[in-house]
Structure formats: C-alpha cells, structure tokens
Amino acid sequence: MGQRRMRSRQDEKGQDTGVDDRHMQIGEVAARTELSLRTIRHYEETGLVIPSARSQGGFRLYTETDVARLMVIRRMKPLGFPLDQMRDLLDATDRLDRDDPLGAAEREVLLGRVRAYEQAAAEQVDKLRVQLARAEDFAATLRARLDQNTPVAPS
C-alpha cells in the first residue's frame, strides 16, 4: 500500500481540520468497514478498538491498523464470538505483532491461542455451511411448490 501524505485536510469551508492523510475520521472508517458509527463507538467503549488519535476539534481519528482491528471484529461477530474472546484474540495478535522480541515459550502460548480461535472459526463456518444448505433446500422446496401451483397460461 502506498504511503499516505502528511498534508492536513480541510473542511468544506477550507479550514484546517487538524487531520493528516494518515488518519481517518469515523465516517470514513464506517464506510470502509461497513460498520455503523454506533457500532464503532460501542467497540471503543468496550475497549476493543481505541482511536489512535483525536483531531484538534476532538474528533476520533483512526489509522489503517485500527481499521484492520475493526475488520477482525467484524469477521468474528457473525461466527458468534463474544466480546471477551474478540478482546483475547486481538491481545494475542497485538503481542505477536509487537517489535519487541518474545520468548519461545510466550510465542508458543500466543500462537496456541490464535490456533484455538482458528479452529473454533473453522468449526463455526462448517456449522454455518450446514445451515445455509438447509436454508437453500427450504427455499428450493418453496419455489417448487409455487411452480406446481402456478396456473399455466392458455396457449
């Protein structure tokens, strides 16, 4: 991905917003993640994703890293992971991604946590596939019933 410029943004009146091109306001983040403003604020209140900065006017400012965290949460949500498990996975991946070196034992513990979430996600995906197949079968059954009972127009 290209490097973002460091110039400041201006609002519709041409006034400096105090936001550089490395940061996004919540509306842009909502559009990119397809999450509502309310949901993003909720994740902030629960400590899952804290904005990286605030503008001069006090607006939440997010980075690409913040967006990536929100995407992890967005992908976990439909698989039924509760907020505490989301927090636990994000903590493990944050620690694995840090620049400071980890001991072999700590690294293995963290990787074990990530593996457990990957396995749980795979199991949930399998369950959802079964549910989807049943739903598709049900819809096909209804279509067939409708087709059987739709009068044929006379020739």
Short description:
By secondary structure, this protein is mainly alpha-helical. The chain has helices at 26-33, 37-45, 64-76, 83-97, 104-149; strands at 8-10, 16-20, 24-25, 53-54, 60-62.
Task: Describe the protein in words.
The protein folds into 2 domains: 17-71, Orthogonal Bundle (Multidrug-efflux Transporter Regulator, Chain: A, Domain 2), CATH 1.10.1660; 80-144, no CATH class. It starts with 7 loop residues before the first strand and ends in a 6-residue tail after the last helix. 14% of the residues are buried. The protein has helices at 26-33, 37-45, 64-76, 83-97, 104-149, and strands spanning 8-10, 16-20, 24-25, 53-54, 60-62. Residues 1-19 have low confidence and may be disordered. It is built from 5 helices and 5 strands.
**What integer is the average pLDDT?**
87
Ranges where pLDDT stays below 50 over 5 or more residues in a row are 1-19
Q: Determine Rg (CA atoms, Å).
A: 23 Å
Proportion of beta-strand residues? 5-15%
Helix content: 55-70%
Major beta sheet, strand line-up:
3-5-4
How many helices? 5
Largest sheet: 3 strands, antiparallel
* Helix and strand element order: EEEHHEEHHH
**How would you describe the shape?**
flat
Number of strands: 5
> Helix/strand/pairing class, anyone?
mainly alpha
The total domain count is: 2
Distance between the termini: 61 Å
Biased composition (Basic and acidic residues): 8-24
Keywords: DNA-binding
InterPro entries: DNA-bd_dom_put_sf, MerR-type_HTH_dom, MerR_fam
GO molecular function: DNA binding; DNA-binding transcription factor activity
